[in-house]
Amino acid sequence: MLLLLVAHLLMAVAAPALVSWLHRRAFWVLALAPASAFVYALALTPRVMDGDFPEQTVSWVPSIGLELAFRLDTLAWLMLLVVGGVGALVLVYCSAYFSRSATGLRRFAGVLTAFAGSMVGLVTADDLLLLFVFWELTTVFSYLLIGHYAERKAGRRAAMQAIVITTAGGLTMLVGLVILGVSAGTYRVSDVVADPPSGTAVTVAAVLLLVGAATKSALIPFHFWLPAAMAAPTPVSAYLHAAAMVKAGVYLVARFAPAFSDLPEWKAVVIALGGGTLLVGGYRALRQHDLKLVLAFGTVSQLGLIILLVGLGTRGAALAGLAMLGAHAMFKAALFLSVGIVDAATGTRDLRRLTGVGRRLPFTATAAALATLSMIGFPPFAGYVAKEAALESLVHGTGPGWLDATVLWVFVVGSVLTVAYGARFWWGAFATKHAEVSVARANAHVDSTAFDLPAGTQTTRRTRRNALATVGDAEVEPIDPRRIERPSFLLVGPPMILAVMGLLAALLPHVGEQVLGPYAATYPAGEEGHLTLWGGFGPPVVLTLVVFAGGALLFWQRGWVERFQASAWDVPEADRVYRRTMRRLDDLAADVTAWTQRGSLPFYLGAILLVLVVGPGIAGLSGWSGELTVKAWDRPAQLAVVLVVCIAAILATRARRRLKAVLLVGAAGYGNAALFLLHGAPDLAMTQVLVETVTLAVMVLVLRRLPPYFSDRPLVGSRFVRLGIGLAVGLTMMAFAVVAPLARIARPISLDFPAEAYEFGGGKNVVNVTLVDVRAWDTVGEISVLLVAATGVASLVFLSRRSGEIERVRSVRAMPEPPQVWSEPSDGGSALRRRAVRPVPGPDGRTSATTTAVRPWLRAEGTLAPQRRSVIFEVVTRLVFHSMIVFALYLLFSGHNSPGGGFAAGLLVGIALLVRYLAGGRYELGEAAPINPGLLLGTGLFLSAGVGLIALLAGGEVLQSVIVDLHVPLLGDIHLVTSLFFDVGVFLLVVGLVLDILRSLGAEIDRQVEAGGEVL
Amino acid sequence: MISAESVPNPPDLGLSMVPSLALVLAIGVLFTTGVYLLLERSLTRVLIGFVLVGNGANLLLLVAGGRAGGAPIVGLTATERMSDPLVQAMILTAIVITLGITAFVLAMAYRSWQLHGHDEVQDDLEDRRIARIAAENAPVYDDTDASDASTLDDEASTVRDDTSELGSGDRRRHDDGGRA
């Protein structure tokens, strides 16, 4: 069975290519997939009849008990025959049905084949969750097929409606399936059914399953999606919406009825929905003018009937239901395919316009006639056999008398309606309606002008609309039957085969009984039924005659019935109710959005913070024993630093000058570094100091572009609200700080870190080893965040590219006018300082400002505006830059054993670059780091994450450290740990981050200012 | 209320978890001032608030790791005297990430200044539009699934398949499905 699924999958994937290659003939190849399912089922018939059901199990997701379990029992066998047989015929039909120039055929072919595959999976799945997976797959493929003509509003709407309803039902069903699986302790369908659990939960689950079945099989009140789904191409209607997919609900009911049909709730739902659907569908089929809609409402009705039979719980009814299932698949698919032929041949499906089609298309008319006879239960067709068996079993019901009588009469009335719409269908499609033709001829002339003339057509078209709107045959323009051409055998063949099979199957009723009987026997109640052509004279025969008489009467008085329905139809139609509900849902969504999405950042943040206070805050305090165990300080110096931090923070909130606020926050940050140091965290202290330095400098770089003072604060009232939220959050966090450490009940995992770090990580600095080895994956994630942040900064400032060109001194030489970085505002002394630069002839004879008599301290010092230069700064920069780099490298390589590491080293290099930039401007930065920061970021991330794979090659886990001890002559023993490369990656990435920040927020802003500031 | 470290910790955690009040105070002040600024409209203030909250969160992590101790370096400090290295590793990356985010918000503030001449966060206009629509109960867009206009019969008469060229009758006029 798995092989069948794989075959379908391969076919579906190959379908687009096949259609490109073979065009419409590709459908012949694709038909092989469902045909193989049909042949497979047929070949296994003897085993199925013997009760030796083939099974197949492949473990899929063991952790949630999900298995690819398949089982071919009698019900699955029947469904597989239907799905495979009808599927193959429909695909063959497609090859002639669509025009050569039809659009979207490639997608269509693939989706239809995939649908057939999911249907095969659905009916053979023996696992509750697997069943659900295939169930939803059919929903999705059905959606794609209904919406095949996506450019049409009707198609889109029908597809959306179908998927919303069937998915809602599917999810409901999933809840039921899970309850069932949990209560039964197994997800194997066959086990659940064989030994059904009981209890309230299981009853609820059973009803939920029925809801799923009701949406899929278009039972009231969800039936309206099926007629709307007729927007799909006709072969799809024939396959999905008559033979296969809508039978999934029937299948589900039949599958679980043996286990749950004795539940009163089950019975009530099945009788109410099944019976109601039978009547509503039949009644509404009588007023439709579109042939597909007649059939669609007929299908709704028939589905109600089948669900009623297979869900009722008696063996006789179940046997009749299964027979009906097979019969319905044959006759309804045949009828839809016939409609397709008529539609293709005449250009319309309106039964008021069709006339004389039967004479021109005798074979199609014959096939449709055979199928119609089967549908209305005329002997000796399959439909008749099934209906007789149903009548027989309903007459001998097992429930309370009034209930049996109700069900019986609902069945009889439903059958009367079936006869009436069946007759109406065949008459509408194929009969010659002499009376109307002459009247219509006169109209035909008017109409053709209405359509052929582009101008002045409004009035005539309106006339025609009015005519169409009036119920009655005479006002509608009929077709001209003489222009109908004979369809190809490929079109007529499939419906003919299906119709004839409906006759053949009925001629051997005992075979059907032999095959299907064992499954019906698994039902809990009632006598076993029989399939037979003549069951003797009794109540069923009388009822059959009543049915035909009633149906004939209704057909004879069809004009009256239509007028009655048109005038009496006041009950809101289900699809209107659905549309209004969707509209309300939209309104509700808008209201909720308007209420929650205020568009105000402070509002959102306030809401989030209040949730933090109320939610985790209360949860945290509820776990508190009431004892408060704190000490004043770890070390007395802590208190002094804390006071500094607090004062700085409070002053920062009160500052009105941006620069002042930034400096105060910097002070608080340095205070934090001191606290880290006092706590025994030198790595943190070092990193904090470096970060604080970079942050301060960067903030100052940006703030020079912003107004020096903050704008006036908003209303004082909101100020106290904000202060209140701030205090609440602060107090909550203080409570956390007190409660959380004491709530610890397990030994900290980090107690073992020192030993592990030394033994496995090969380093003495536990924090560093934790970063690059023990928790290296975390670090990979965190440096990825840095990469994203750096890219974000660059893309916000460099608008058109990842980053600008690297501005170097040699590019300046080519400029006609040398740049004057930071030339404004100029001060009085600028003229004096200008003397520092003496123009001398360059090597190419031109005057160059960058060449000075003495060797420059900084390479790009000539690009700086003279008033911005500071010789002392330049000299100091010259002196410290290389020392800083060397020290950074020392930190990097020694970080494994003493404070330092990639983060600190990278930041230090960043600061060195910052110093160069501040001393010499952006060209100096370009000289100091003539490299694209993106390259550094990428290389860093690659080194960090990529080197982890080395350990994989060495047979370890990803990111595991490998320690290599080498003896190198002259240098001595080298102790190399591969995590050093990880740290180098971190180093490069951090350098890239700082460089990116400097180049964006420093150099690029400078350039934009020089360019006039109006760069957007 | 403030008792010494002598209160026994029932489970043996390996190291004392009693928090230091000084750090708790710093956490409270940093969070209060940080949140107060975070709720402002000026991006620079929001950013400063964010940095303060970040510092507070780092201290909170530090406190959660237990008492102060020696630097967690093997050979320099005895293992039982070390401060918790795990929280330090977490804080270290948090510090650097704060730098990245700070730069990002600064870039946004700069961009906002470039575009609007100030760095204040304005209310979202689209959200206001939705609120106005909700107040009027008007449809947000023309939703075909919710409109009430057509019936199944109307729609069925407009829908036809791309069928093969069988009859030439009056099929052509319906071919596009949209003209009727």
Notes on the protein architecture:
- Chain B: It is a multi-pass membrane protein.
- Chain B: It is found in: Cell membrane.
- Chain B: Residues 142-156 have a biased composition (Acidic residues).
- Chain B: Keywords: Cell membrane, Membrane, Transmembrane, Transmembrane helix.
- The complex is a heterodimer of chains A (1016) and B (180).
- In chain A, 70% of the residues lie in helices and 3% in strands.
- Chain A is built from 40 helices and 6 strands.
- Mean pLDDT of chain A is 82; it is low at 436-474 and 847-852.
- With 180 residues, chain B is mainly alpha-helical.
- Chain B has a domain at 21-125: Orthogonal Bundle (Helix Hairpins), CATH 1.10.287.
- Helices cover 51% and strands 0% of the residues of chain B.
- Chain B contains 5 helices and no strands.
- Residues 1-10 and 167-180 of chain B have low confidence and may be disordered.
- Classes of the chains: A mainly alpha (1016), B mainly alpha (180).
Termini separation of chain B: 86 Å
Helix count of chain A equals: 40
Name the chain pair with the biggest interface and residue counts per chain: A-B, 183 and 147 residues
Q: Sketch the major β-sheet of chain A.
A: 2 strands, antiparallel
CATH topology of the domain at 21-125 in chain B: Helix Hairpins
Main sheet summary of chain B: none
CATH architectural name of the domain at 21-125 in chain B: Orthogonal Bundle
Could you say how many structural domains of chain A there are in total? Answer: 3
Mean pLDDT of chain A: 82
Radius of gyration of chain B: 33 Å
Low-confidence stretches of chain A: 436-474, 847-852
> Globular, elongated, flat, extended or rod-shaped: what is the shape of chain A?
elongated
Count of alpha and pi helical runs of chain B: 5
Unreliable stretches of chain B, pLDDT < 50, 5 or more residues?
Answer: 1-10, 167-180
Which percent range describes the beta-strand content of chain B?
under 5%
Number of E strands of chain B: 0
Helix content of chain A: 55-70%
What class do helices, strands and sheet pairing of chain A give? mainly alpha
Helix/strand class of chain B: mainly alpha
- Walk across the major sheet of chain A and give the strand order: 1-2
SS elements, strand count of chain A: 6
